[in-house]
Amino acid sequence: MNIKELLAKKISEILNEDKENVYKTIEQPKDKGDFAFPCFRFAKAAGKNPAELATFLAERLKIDVVRKIEVVNAYVNFFIKTESLANIVFERSLEHKPSNNKTVVIDFSSPNIAKHFHIGHLRSTVIGGSLRNIYNHLGYNTIGVNHLGDWGTQFGKLIVAFKKYSSIEEVREHGIDVLMRIYARFTQEAKEDESLNDEARAYTVKLEQGDSEAVELWQYFKEISLAEFDKVYKRLGIEFEYTLGESFYIDKIPGAIKELEDKGILLESEGARIVDLEEYKLPPCLMFRKDGGSLYHTRDLAAILYRKSEYKFDKIIYVTAVDQITHFKQLFAVVKKLGFDFDMQHAAFGLVTLPEGKLSTREGRVVLMSDLINQTVAKVRNIIEEKNPTLANKDEVAEQVGVGALIFNDLFNGRIKDIVFSFEHILNFEGETGPLVQYTHARACSILRKNCEKNYEETDEINHNLFECEYSHHLLYTLYMFDHKLEDVIAKDEPYLLSRYLIDLAGAFNRFYHNVPILSSETETKNARLALVRQTKNTIKKGLELLGIKAPEEM
Q1: Model confidence at 361, in pLDDT bands (50, 70, 90)?
Q2: Residue 232: exposure state from Cβ atoms within 10 A (0-12, 13-18, ≥19)
Q3: Distance (Å, rounded) from C-alpha 490 to C-alpha 328?
């Protein structure tokens, strides 16, 4: 049962208003009830002031699951029966929802070939990974695409640098470190020797024309890079249906351009070719440079049209940094101008910074993801040795908590917000962090283990009338809100709504744990409270899983 939907139905019938508008207006207050309906926007149509309308509604609403209705100024506050919440919480399933026959493509992570995977790539990776998990859980067919940066003039430069300064043996032994070093050397020397840039341009052309030597080296650079990326993805628990670089779409560009030409919207402008977007109040979208070279817009247009044709998606989400907002506004406008009308979203995110400032390769302020994960896991291992030295599987738990701390920290605030990375914050077991939520799960597991060890009776026959105390009610209400929060996540493509929810759930459970006797209660009451503990454990585990985080049973 969706209680919020039931309230919206009853209110809309009395007001003769659209149910969806009423549903969107219903709030979840921090106090003064479980749900609240503010009457401001509906008062004029009803011919009353907001406070009068609130009283008018309260006098007419009769809803079985509501135990009390209060009016506070222009708000109608609803207090839900605890038994009704319990009925819903214990009857629902946390398993994968039935398919809704809708497909969502999520374009995320997208590191550049021949460069290290660093902390700046973490945001796109874990935001996209969590969205993929949540959409999939809610019954969508999800297609995760890793759109690698593997094309452009930099690869002509890298080929020349490799041929001049390195060898297969050196790259095989030292990997991306060598590629980055020789690229930096090339860049420096090319400032003094323009012939190097000429060689690079020649090799870029060779690569684009399929020259066997150039293609073989380029493929090798990709293999070296993907081997490093895959190690990081494995530790982060990230999977993709497709890993396809920009290069994959090069031969799709002519088809995309033909679409533009057939619609008469590809224009000449000072030797370049553009799509005019004045009607969308956007600058022109540059599709080809004067020299005929393609750009990101060209390749992204080819990619989105290919994906629509092949994947037949209902929605596509690009998880990239906030500085690409204009790029995607232009891309989406071009697609609309072609006559396509499908759901395109840019899930933009802010920067990751370090306490000493923005990430900067030149100034040495870039933290490699492999190093960051290792450092975090090592710090958690030290905490475990200090606080719980007899814990079994210390290394496994340290990995789960360390990686979980990194992911949770990234997902804890709205994605548009910048993040300042701090070990002190992310590993705080008493703050609003991943380790706190994981510890709460472990605490619930401990209670259930103790019950089993004492051979207490356990049954599925639960008396839902035994949850009347305020701590039980609030915990049940918070558990009930789980599905609502997931729907909120996909409505806004904001995983932080689930992260914040898990903090709220952990808080509600810990207050319940500290204030309500569980194992010392008489049998019927104990069984009811243990059922609530079990439901909390399962919900936390599922929530963490959807974020891409493991839930240790002991910490």
Answers
A1: very low
A2: buried
A3: 19
